[in-house]
Amino acid sequence: MPRAKWAVAALTVVLLSTGIVVLQRTEGARPAAVTTDDALPSRALGLSGHRRLVRELEQSDEHTPGTGARSPRTAPGPLRTVTGPLRAARPLRLRIPSLGVDLPLTGGRAEVAWDTGGPAPGAAGTAVVTVEGLRLGELRRGRTIEIPRADSRTAVFTVVRISPGRAFGHEGAPGRAQLRLVGGETAVLARLTGQRRTR
Questions:
Q1: Contact (Cβ atoms closer than 8 angstroms) between residue 199 and residue 157
Q2: What gap in Å lies between CA 191 and CA 156, rounded to an integer?
Q3: How far is CA 63 from the centre of its chain?
Q4: CB contact burial 96-122 (16+ within 10 A = b; e otherwise)
């Protein structure tokens, strides 16, 4: 029995001595720097540093306010004020942001159709676009209408008049670019005020 007590006491002394030595060696040592690979998000995602950075950039691009689902290649350029008409180009779409309208624009019978017998939207003269089922009467002066075109430019028009009739007669100075939207018994007259480049 005394021999067993002696063995336990010796073992206890050895363990305590080892613990004291380990503590003395590590005391005052600086903590190891946390690398990017040790960060919690990268461990959780199983990604290395550069892969995690790429992932974060992609996620921030997806959630950037105002970008919606547009990719950088299709994002519109800055709006530029224009003083004269643009060259003629085939119109592709009709956009009326205040009404939430974004529809393809064709040259034949459709919900939204451009009168190909007249000027192209953005070119000199008054382009006529016929629309069906749109609430044109809810438009107000100063609102914008956008026509993306085949030349990678978007013609931006500003509404100057809304009429319960279908025609305005011969308004505007010669050579001015205008847009007339006609739908039901409402007509809207807008003037070209800007353009933006489609990237």
A1: no
A2: 8
A3: 10
A4: beeeebeeebeeeeeebbbeeeebbbb
Q: Which two tokens stand for residue 167?
A: 């025609």
Q: pLDDT tens for the chain, 199 residues: list them.
A: 566 666 667 667 666 666 665 555 655 544 444 444 444 443 444 445 545 554 554 554 444 333 333 333 445 678 889 878 999 999 999 999 999 999 998 766 668 999 999 999 999 999 999 998 889 999 999 999 999 999 999 999 999 999 987 665 555 556 899 999 999 889 999 999 999 997 6
Distance, in Å, from the CA atom of 145 to the CA atom of 114, rounded to the nearest integer, reads 14
- Determine if residue 188 is left, alpha or beta; phi over 0 gives left, psi from -120 to 50 gives alpha, anything else beta: beta
